[in-house]
Structures are given as C-alpha cells and as structure tokens.
Queue: 2 jobs
Job 1
Amino acid sequence: MKAAVQMDMHGCPNRCRHCYLGHHMNPDIPVDEFIRVAEQFREYKKNGRTFFSELIFCSWYREPDFPDNYRELWELENRLSTGNVPHFELTSIWRLARDPYYAPWLKELGVKTVQVTMFGTEKNTDFFTGRKGAYADILKVFDILLANGVAPRIQVFPFTTTLDDINRLVAVLHDIRLEERVKDLGREFTCFFNTLTPMGEGFKLMQIVLRKDDIRKLPDYLIEKTLKHYKKATVQEFMKTEAELLTELLNDGNPLNDNPEITAFFIDGDYNVYPNCGEITGWWCLGNLKRDGVASVVENFFNRNTPGLKMNFETPVSYFARKYGNPDSDVLWVKSDLVHKWIRQEGMAGTSQE
Ligand code: SF4
C-alpha cells in the first residue's frame, strides 16, 4: 500500500478566499514531532505485517517551503520517505519574492515551472489571496523566475464580479511580454482559468461563481490558452451549467468515488487527520493521531468510517442531485465540484453524521 502523509507544520502566509483547505492558524510543529508522526505510520502493522510498503512524507499541505528551514525540511522529507519526494510546480511565491537563494535552489532541484495564482490585477489578487502585496510579489517573482530559467505558469480564478479585471490582467501580461519571455527560455507559456472547488473557504464564494453568460466576457486569449491546457475543443467540454449536469446526475446511481491517484493523510496542527479526497472539516476527520493513534485513523479511512467518506464512496450521486440540485441554475461546474458542493451541504446539515 502506497500513501502520502502530509503535515501542516507551518501553515501558509496567505488566506485565499477560494482555499479548499480552509483558514486555520499557522502551526509551529517541531521537527522531532514530525519525525515521531512518520515513525508511527512507518511502524503501523496489520496482521503482524508492515501495512504501508511505500510512504511519502511532506512537511506541508498548505504552502510548501514557507518556513526558513525549508531546505532542512526537504532533506528530512527525503530521508523519511521510501523514495524521492518530487518538488512539483507548487512553491512559495511569498518566499520567492523575499529569499534570493530560493529560486536557484528550486532550479537546482530540477523545477522547470512554477505555478502562480492570480485573480485579476492588484486589487482583486490582493483581496482574493487575502494578503496585501500579493500582486506586487507575483510581478517581482516573474522576473526572478525568468532570470533563473524557470517558467511561470499562471492559473487565474475568474468570478462574476471580476471579469473586467481579468481582461485588464491579460493586458498587463501582454505589456510585460510574459509569453515572449517564457518562449525565450525555449518553453511554452501556460496560462489557464481554473474552476472553483466549493469546499473549505471556497464554499463561501457561491454567489460569484461563473455563470454561462460570463464565459463570453473572458478574454479570447485566456479561453484559447485554457482550452489548450485542458486539451479541450470547447469550454462546454469541461464545464456545464448545473441545470445541464442535473439531467445526468439525477440518474447517476454510483457514488462520486473521488479517489486521488495517491491516498494522502493530511494532518493539521492539532494532529487531526483528514483524507485528501475530502476537506479539513469535522465530517471528514479520521481521528486524532495523538488521542486515537495511527491504527484507528488508518482503519477509519479504509473502513470508510466517517460521514464524508460514506458520502464520497457509498451514497449515490442521484441522492444528492434530488435533494440539492437546482434545475434552473446557470452556474458553471465541473461535475465532481458540483457533487462536492452537495456533499458539503449534506455535511453541514449534519444529516449524514453518525
Ligand atoms: S489556496 Fe494555497 S496559498 Fe491560498 S491560502 Fe490555501 S493553502 Fe494557502
């Protein structure tokens, strides 16, 4: 059995309004504690046999490389894990703007692309990132990355209230010649709009989720880049209105079965553990590592012993569609996000809680 164990040792400098992981205090977990957590998972046995054949340990599940000892933590993650821990395109934009040694280190690790999240120009990017100066950091980070031979990749979150500003953002990207500068590195420039996951803080943005008519107000440039990124011919291929999706979902007798490629256990600063197919909230919680121990947490996951897991792996999608679906809604969704919204509504109502 392969799994990842990700501990929120230091939190995140941002408080993004779309954050599916939610807003929580930034913890300060000592390195020794992280090592003890790793030992518990590595030593977990079932029927006398080591349960996990492969384990990847990460010192974060919110912002990677946020604490000053990020190199030490990276080395520790690799020592504790059964294989090499890859460094993905997720990095700390906050650190990139402040730490001159960080971009060269990322390059040394072989990072070729860094993902940057934007919500428009300064006012909206600062507002939706939940941090003043976030936009200024990003503009600075473009230069830093390019100077180090690393390509920025931009994901944009548009909302019904920010469409004009998304057009302004695209004009800024043209003004600073970002695409040409990435091409000068011999790389393709990737830029796409992403869809809201209505979990955690994202659930609070329901009133401003994109609607069908909003798509034509987005810049053609962003639409073209987005379709290329998702390898789709039209927006309708990956997003439909709730009304359109309902026709299919009312007849869907299967559960959602959101099952990420690698099962990850997210451990928060209070040692509560959550599966990565869900969110950091009560009805998904597998237990507390200190209070309940690793055996109970792992068994709760595999026995689907939380309301969230039951809703994901057992309850037919048609149940949620009948109860929460709106046949008049022109809000655009990816199917799994819409079902997760309904699962959250059910979780909040407590009707699936044991
Ligand atoms: S979305 Fe990412 S960067 Fe933003 S608050 Fe959540 S964890 Fe932090």
Note: The longest helix spans residues 335-349.
Job 2
Amino acid sequence: MKPLSSEQVAAFKEAGFLQLKRMLDPGLCEQALDRLWAALPANSRMRRHDASTHVGPFPADEESRDPLHIRAGYLWQLRECGTEPLLIELAYSPKLLAVAEQLLGEGMLAKPTVGGRPMGSEGPAWPGGPTDPAITDGIRGIYCTRPYADEDRSVERDRGHTDGHPFHLGLVGLLADVPPNGGAFKVWPGSHRRLYPTFQLQYDQPRLPYYDHLPRHKGIVHTPAYLAELERVMEDTEPVDCWGERGDVVLWHHRLAHMAGHNTSSVMRQAVLCDFSRTDLNHRRMDPPQANMWRDWSEDLQVS
Ligand SMILES: [Fe+2]
C-alpha cells in the first residue's frame, strides 16, 4: 500500500510541493526542541517557555557566525545536530521514507550517516559566503526564525529563490505550530516546471570561485533565461504560505521558487530541514535539464 494517492502525486507534479499533516512523531519533535534549546548559551535572554523573549533579533552579544550554530539577526540555525540519531530518526522515519521513495523510486534514496559530518563542518564556500548545504552526512538542521516584533516588514515584497546545491526533494517539517505569516515556508506553485529548463545543469548551478579583487563575482551563476523567468514568476504567481501544526511537513521539488517567509506573527518558527537525494545523483548531476523533467523520479510519479 503506497502512502500517497495518485491525486497527491499528480498534485506534487503540478504544483511542485505537497503539504502533509502529522508526518513527524510529536515525541521526537519535542526531543528535537529539547536539543535545540539545550544548545543555546546560558547567557541568552531568550527563554524557551517565555515566547515574549523570542521576539526580535538576537542582540549583538548573543550572535554567532559559527556555521554549525548560527545566531544572527532573526535567524537561529542549529546544524551541529544534523547527523545525531535523534534528528535522523525524525527526518528519515519509515513514514517519511515511504513517501520519499514513492516519489523518487523504491530503494533509490541516499541514506544518511549517523555520527557523520553535519552541514557547516566545512565552513563557508568563500569568506563571508554561505555554507554549502550539499556537504552533509545528515539533515540540514533545525532552522528558526524569530518574530519581527514591532518592526513592520509585512510590507516587504516576498522574494523567492531556488537553491544552488544538488538534491531532489526538500523537506520542511514543523517542530511546533506555526501560524499564517509565521515564516513557516513560502512556495511559488508551478515555478519548478518553468525554472527547471532554464538551468545549465539538471541539479547543480555553476559557481565562480571567490577572488579578493573581484568581490562582486562570487556565488552562483544564473542564466539570463533563469533570471527572466524568476522575475515573471514573482510577478504572475501568488505564493503559498505552508503554515501548520507540529508534525506537519511540506515536501518540495528542488527547482521550486521558495523562501523561509517573513515572520510577522508572535511565534518563533522552529522547523527541521532536510534534503532527500537519490543514490544516482552523482551520475545524473552531469546532465543538462531533460526534455522529461521527471526522468529521474519514480515510475509511479511518471505515470501520474
Ligand atoms: Fe532556499
């Protein structure tokens, strides 16, 4: 018995994402939050059970740029736990694996390594640059967005992006309830089908190395077609805010435009992020986008 109906699989193909209720074990969610809060330095003004202390950015003296445990502005990202048994058990549960395998092919899912190197172990890709999320033996980590407080950023325009590292299927799982506009995860439906053909490679994005004398030329190389199509998506597509309750997840296609979302609620967004990949990613990643963008996915999905 497959966990997803053919309608759900077809909906994922069409929209590029799928929201599923109660997919994470609530007990493990609570333990993941225990792990998160235990990592917060004792001198922090934030208190787990006093939501009023979660509001606003980290004060300067509480900030950390350690890629294994980032606390900066409104972001709190704990990556050091990404290969611990608890987080692997949470994100690679039999229930979630069954869904991921239905989409990506039975027996085709790359497995994490408990006790392996978590994302952030390698440090940033260049000075001041991002950490490469592809370099991990486990999940991405626990990602939080503190509420904006009275700083009114609701008028800011939503701006989606696609991720530059190779994977197939993203997972955002809510460890605690996140209300609408709480920064859960925002997606632009259907954008994966429009953006996928504009890349040079099926999964990767070419990067330029960092040179001190060329500080502007760092980062990911986008094709003009990609930039133009992303602009059109931002103009003509209404994003969907994937808010929900503890244990709810959203699964999303790797070329889907998305953003964490502005958190204008009064609750901190606490979520687990994970990327599922197929075991043949390192061969297939050499290919350009395919005429059939679902070539590497399950037969189940291809016939839906
Ligand atoms: Fe992203």
Note: The two ends are 16 Å apart (CA to CA).
